[in-house]
């Protein structure tokens, strides 16, 4: 024990440098499940083996490249004023594609607002994700078509929806599973704690997939927790595992295993994907104000796409033609996204009164009629002006 | 026999039993709703008859109760959740307001959220802090929610059926101090629409509008005023969102005077909304400004002071006199 820590122990109530939240706890050296190293080497893990064909590996690579391309296009569209806001997933492609490709069609996904890669895996047209960021709707897709729920902006709320949905799955006697996505910041929310309690108590078939991207806007993970996040699960009575979130193979293997556990009726699992948000939280913030340049540089060396490319090239699972073709496909996606967003019409004014209620509502009827009359008064005065 | 005299508590219990019996997708969730039957025994015996999978005792976490109910509704269930007391709904307020109320609209109508949130509300039972509040305006203000409150056993029975059948989320405020009041319930009747206000006493000099626990007080006030030769009409609003303004308007245009009575604080309360709308609709029919009687802009007081805070017969009659004096 050091002199400093002894002194701190004598004055437990005094704030000292040792107890400051700015000091990194032991979580900075995570025990990660890893199957593909940052250098692109395949490694084995005793609990999570995976055997993918060259075609499957290329498909994962394609997913990640196209997702990144889509994300880059959306960021550019925000800069051009076509979107009001964008939450970039840059750097988190492996966590999202790996977990997303572990899902079956009949599984149900509850995302936060950054799961563009998971949406891609579910078959949601990426342009559908842009309506809410452009300001033409608050969701815009039917969650039941792809079993992909609407984005949830209030942090952590969706973990409870996922838990309730999973309770319903169990009641139905179905063997599908549910996955809830959230971030390291959300782990501080009461709803996440309550969802852990409920899912454990009812043994709900839900996987909690926490993308620890190290930052909740400007607050580091150390501002959310003093223990590694995956260890929280133990206190609730279910397993937690930390996976290299930049390793698409490990994310796939770990999520698949957790989903299978849920299907077998063994209850929830917390997966902490240890990753990094390369860009800003959203296009509204400026990460240069709160994090050091060398931090990003260190994570760039762990880039999820580069490492799989290295492996594909070294193993001979993909040739140059594959990468060239993907580049063309990627540009075409960018072009389509651009065109669709720019052509998105503003909603009709009268749509204000649509969908507030499933059943009729006299108050809405009254206000709709007043608004319609008000709108019509402009048409009348235009008529008079002729 | 279809007509039976029962308490509001019994009517709610019978109604929940009927809902569980008719639709296998109906669930009841909450703290202590199982073996205990709820702290007010509204769910008494239901777990015994329908099992722990249908009548679900939950962890002690209100946001979790409503949040998981939302998930169950998305899976096709129709959860009825019990919040133990009015003041305990606030941990769940976020889930109700930011999630439950808005999800149907956010999905452009593609999904439905048939969740009923039962809240025993209001004062007059000598309870401790957070057990006597009337937060209905906080919910009525939120688009996407329906807010209702029965005042008698028949409405308790039928409005609960209608709330469960609604594809929209319904906040169902139960007047806890009237739980043991008895009246006739016809379980074979064809109920009126959920959001229709009802004239519970005819009159020609002034209209009293109330809902939930205050209907009884207003009926007593009208009876007392009758002895002084004043003819008071009493409306039971039944629904605070939406509000049946047509019925209120028709009554006011007959009597020319309106007093709104509720337990909740007057400031920003439902009385303010009714006064404003009726003034817009019936300005030239009004013989007096619309008056309001309700709680004060003060924390709900300790039990020994609640008689001063809650509108009673005298305060309602005082408002009637003030209105008639114009």
Automatic annotation (TrEMBL), chain A:
Top-level taxonomic group: Bacteria
Residue stretches making up the Dehydrogenase E1 component domain: 62-340
Region (Disordered): 1-40
One MF term in the entry's GO annotations: magnesium ion binding
Keyword Transcription: no
InterPro entries found in the cross-reference section: Alpha-ketoacid_DH_E1_comp, DH_E1, PdhA/BkdA, THDP-binding
Keyword Zinc: no
Keywords: Oxidoreductase, Pyruvate, Thiamine pyrophosphate
Needed co-factor(s): thiamine diphosphate
Skewed-composition ranges (Basic residues): 10-21
BP term (GO), one: branched-chain amino acid catabolic process
NCBIfam families from the UniProt entry: PDH_E1_alph_x
PANTHER family registered for this protein in UniProt: 2-OXOISOVALERATE DEHYDROGENASE SUBUNIT ALPHA, MITOCHONDRIAL
Name used for this protein in its record: Pyruvate dehydrogenase
The species this protein was found in: Streptomyces nanshensis
Organismal lineage: Bacteria, Bacillati, Actinomycetota, Actinomycetes, Kitasatosporales
């Amino acid at each position: 024990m050091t002199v400093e820590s002894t002194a701190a122990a004598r004055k437990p109530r005094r704030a000292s440098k040792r107890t400051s939240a700015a000091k990194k706890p032991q979580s900075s050296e995570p025990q990660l499940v890893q199957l593909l190293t940052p250098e692109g080497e395949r490694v084995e893990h005793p609990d999570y083996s995976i055997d993918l064909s060259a075609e499957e590996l290329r498909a994962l690579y394609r997913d990640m490249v196209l997702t990144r391309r889509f994300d880059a296009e959306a960021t550019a569209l925000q800069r051009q004023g076509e979107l009001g806001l964008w939450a970039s997933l840059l750097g988190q492609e492996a966590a999202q594609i790996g977990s997303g490709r572990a899902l079956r069609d009949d599984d149900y996904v509850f995302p936060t607002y950054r799961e563009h890669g998971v949406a891609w895996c579910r078959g949601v047209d990426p342009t559908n994700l842009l309506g809410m960021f452009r300001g033409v709707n608050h969701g815009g897709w039917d969650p039941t078509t792809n079993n992909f729920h609407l984005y949830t902006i209030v942090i952590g709320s969706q973990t409870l929806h996922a838990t309730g949905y999973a309770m319903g799955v169990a009641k139905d006697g179905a063997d599908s599973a549910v996955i809830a996505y959230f971030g390291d910041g959300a782990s501080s929310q009461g709803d996440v704690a309550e969802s852990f309690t409920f899912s454990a108590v009812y043994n709900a078939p839900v996987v909690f997939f926490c993308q620890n991207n190290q930052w909740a806007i400007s607050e580091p993970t150390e501002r959310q927790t003093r223990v590694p996040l995956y260890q929280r699960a133990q206190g609730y009575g279910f397993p937690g595992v930390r996976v290299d979130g930049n390793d698409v193979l490990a994310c796939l293997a770990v999520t698949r295993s957790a989903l299978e556990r849920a299907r077998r009726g063994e209850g929830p699992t917390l997966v902490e994907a240890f990753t990094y948000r390369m860009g800003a939280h959203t296009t509204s913030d400026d990460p240069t104000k709160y994090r050091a340049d060398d931090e990003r540089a260190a994570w760039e060396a762990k880039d999820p796409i580069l490492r799989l490319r290295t492996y594909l090239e070294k193993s001979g699972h993909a040739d140059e033609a594959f990468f060239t073709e993907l580049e063309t496909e990627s540009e075409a996606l960018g072009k389509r996204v651009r065109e669709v967003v720019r052509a998105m019409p503003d909603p009709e004014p009268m749509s204000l009164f649509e969908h507030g209620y499933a059943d009729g509502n006299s108050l809405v009827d009254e206000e709709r009629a007043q608004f319609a009359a008000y709108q019509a008064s402009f048409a009348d005065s235009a008529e008079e002006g002729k | 026999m279809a007509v039976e005299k029962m308490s509001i508590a019994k009517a709610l219990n019978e109604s929940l039993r009927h809902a569980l019996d008719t639709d296998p997708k109906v669930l009841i969730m909450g703290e202590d709703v199982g073996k205990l039957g709820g702290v007010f025994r509204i769910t008494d015996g239901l777990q015994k008859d329908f099992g722990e999978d249908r009548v679900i005792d939950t962890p002690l976490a209100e946001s979790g109760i409503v949040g998981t109910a939302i998930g169950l509704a998305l899976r096709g269930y129709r959860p009825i959740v019990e919040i133990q007391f009015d003041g305990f709904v606030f941990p769940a307020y976020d889930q109700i307001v930011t999630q439950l109320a808005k999800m149907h609209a956010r999905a452009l109508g593609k999904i439905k959220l048939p969740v009923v949130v039962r809240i025993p509300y209001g004062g007059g039972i000598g309870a401790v802090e957070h057990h006597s509040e009337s937060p209905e305006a906080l919910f009525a203000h939120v688009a996407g929610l329906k807010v209702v409150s029965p005042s008698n056993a028949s409405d308790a029975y039928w409005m609960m059926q209608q709330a469960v059948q609604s594809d929209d989320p319904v906040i169902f405020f139960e007047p806890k101090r009237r739980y043991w009041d008895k009246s006739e319930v016809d379980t074979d009747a064809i109920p009126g629409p959920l959001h229709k206000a009802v004239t519970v006493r005819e009159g020609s000099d002034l209209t009293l509008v109330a809902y939930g626990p205050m209907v009884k007080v207003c009926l007593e006030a009208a009876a007392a005023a009758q002895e002084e030769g004043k003819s008071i009409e009493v409306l039971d609003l039944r629904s605070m969102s939406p509000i049946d303004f047509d019925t209120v308007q028709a009554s006011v245009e007959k009597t020319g005077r309106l007093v709104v009575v509720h337990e909740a604080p007057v400031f920003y309360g439902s009385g303010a909304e009714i006064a404003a709308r009726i003034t817009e609709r019936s300005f030239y029919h009004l013989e007096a400004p619309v008056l309001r009687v309700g709680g004060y802009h003060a924390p709900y007081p300790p039990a020994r002071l609640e008689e001063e805070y809650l509108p009673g017969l005298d305060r309602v009659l005082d408002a009637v006199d003030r209105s008639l004096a114009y």
